[in-house]
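F.,

This is the one I mentioned.
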């Protein structure tokens, strides 16, 4: 980053200056200088977003940052694409980027810091400035759609009341287990965050094997979203979306999601998706080919290789649903025909 200097005069209203990270102990933050294309390219708004070109920025203290914040923020223009992790959220976010007026923010670091620090008042004192800075756009921005890290769903009850609409993207449990069990790092990522994921959630039966513990993490997100959707203050503002519906017929599925965010698909919407080639490339790395056939082959191979772990998870989930009386979620355990 370049040496510290005063924040630009349009800082309070322009997304050109994202809040990269904050340090609550030192009461300071780091702000970058982005162009609209930097957002479109970035799969993650963390250190991985800095490698494509020389990104300048500023180190600022909290007093300077607060002085530069907008007097009021259009938080209702900030919408959320929550997800269970490794369920197509990057692809859905990039498809939404094709909508006129969308500024897509993928996995901002400050939100993850808030999720980890939920019980720390010093960390949570940054919640208001983080949200205010997410609400900025460019001249053509009509909606900011944030796809946070999956762990940030644990903070949804705090984020949603003052902001816009939300969606939970998910895949059926069988598909998710096949996806997760193929990679030890994916398993560790979920299991290491169990205390945070399970906090403030209903008591569930004990889970011991990796498959059962993964199933518990999947179920917790479904239960969390059901509870949020039942909140009278959020009625009509939350939906959920099975990623299989996106793969089955992308244009209408994303158009419906966009309408939930107050956006209208353009007349050439299906052609825009086709021309983008997003459906034939890996969403986190546009240079890698990855289409529906490749996805099906990978999942079939993983399902065969990890059949025992998947069975553990499926058995645990069915027993848990019976134990807590949530049999309405049983239809989500397996892919629909």
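My design for it:
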């Amino acid at each position: 980053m370049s040496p510290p200097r005063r924040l630009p005069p349009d800082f309070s209203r322009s997304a050109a200056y994202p809040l990269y990270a904050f340090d609550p102990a030192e009461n300071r933050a780091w702000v970058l200088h982005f162009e609209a294309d930097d957002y479109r390219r970035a799969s993650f708004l963390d250190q991985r977003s800095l490698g494509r070109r020389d990104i300048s920025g500023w180190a600022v203290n909290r007093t300077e940052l607060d002085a530069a914040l907008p007097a009021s923020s259009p938080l209702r223009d900030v919408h959320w694409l929550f997800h269970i992790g490794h369920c197509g959220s990057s692809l859905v976010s990039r498809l939404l980027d094709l909508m006129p007026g969308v500024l897509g923010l993928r996995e901002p670091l400050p939100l993850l810091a808030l999720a980890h620090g939920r019980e720390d008042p010093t960390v949570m004192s940054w919640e208001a400035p983080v949200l205010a800075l997410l609400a900025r756009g460019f001249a053509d921005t009509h909606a900011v759609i944030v796809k946070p890290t999956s762990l940030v769903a644990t903070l949804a009850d705090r984020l949603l009341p003052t902001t816009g609409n939300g969606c939970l993207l998910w895949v059926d449990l069988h598909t998710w287990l096949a996806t997760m069990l193929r990679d030890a790092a994916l398993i560790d990522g979920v299991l290491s965050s169990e205390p945070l994921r399970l906090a403030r959630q209903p008591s569930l039966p004990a889970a011991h094997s990796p498959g059962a513990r993964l199933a518990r993490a999947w179920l917790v997100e479904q239960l969390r979203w059901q509870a949020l959707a039942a909140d009278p203050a959020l009625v009509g503002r939350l939906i959920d979306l099975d990623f299989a519906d996106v793969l089955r017929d992308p244009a209408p599925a994303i158009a419906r999601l966009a309408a939930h965010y107050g956006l209208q698909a353009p007349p050439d919407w299906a052609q825009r998706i086709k021309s983008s080639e997003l459906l034939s490339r890996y969403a986190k790395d546009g240079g890698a080919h990855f289409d529906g056939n490749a996805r099906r082959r990978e999942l079939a191979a993983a399902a065969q290789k990890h059949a025992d772990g998947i069975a553990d998870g499926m058995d645990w989930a069915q027993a848990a649903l019976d134990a807590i009386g949530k049999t309405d979620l049983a239809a989500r355990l397996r892919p629909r025909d």
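The mean pLDDT is 94.

Talk soon.
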